[in-house]
Amino acid sequence: MLELAILGFLYDAPLHGYELRKRITALTGHVRPVAESTLYPAIKRLEKAGFLVRATEPGAVAAPRHVLSLTDAGRGELRRRLAEPDQRDVTDENRWFTVLAFLRHLDDTAAQAAVLRRRLAFLEEPASFFYDDDRPLGAEELADPFRRGVLTIARATSRAELGWLRDTLDSLGG
C-alpha cells in the first residue's frame, strides 16, 4: 500500500520526502500513520528498482532538498499495480482506498472497470463480522447493541459503495 501511494503521488508531480509523507498521511494516516522509518526504506527500494530518481535542489531557507520523481519504469509499475491489484488491495478497505485514489492514472477504462468489478464482486458476497457457525449474522439478529451498530454502519457504507460502483461502472461502459 505504501509503495503504491508513493508511486501514485509522484505520478502527479515530483515531491520531496516531507511533502510526500504529508500527502500519504492525509490519505491513510487516520488508520496507518506513516513513520519516516517506514517511508524512507520504501523510497530506497523503489529507487533501487529504478522506479524513481532523486535530485537535489536548493532549499528555500537552509539545507538542500531531495526531490523525488518517477521514471518511465515507475509510471509503468504504477499502472501495472493498478491494473492487477493484489486480492488484499481489493478486499481491505484501507488498501482499496489507496488503489481508488490513483485508479485515474490507469488510462484504459476497460481496465479501470475490471478493477471496479473485482471490488463489486467482493462486496456482493454475503459476509458479516459475526457468524453463527458458518452463517453470517445480520444486525437484526444481534442482541448486543454495539455489535448491531458495527453491522448497521458497515451495511450503510457497503450500500453507498455498491451504488457508487454500479454508477461508475455504467459511466465507464462496463
Number of helical elements: 8
Q: If strands are numbered along the chain, what order do they take across the biggest sheet?
A: 1-3-2
Shape, principal axes of CA atoms: elongated
Report the sheet with the most strands, covering strand number, pairing sense and barrel closure.
3 strands, antiparallel
Give the helix proportion (percent range): 55-70%
Structural class by helix and strand composition: mainly alpha
Strand % is: 5-15%
Radius of gyration of CA atoms, rounded to a whole number? 20 Å
Give the overall average pLDDT. 90
The SSE order reads: HEHHEEHHHHEEH
Main attributes?
61% helix; elongated; two-stranded antiparallel sheet; three-stranded antiparallel beta sheet
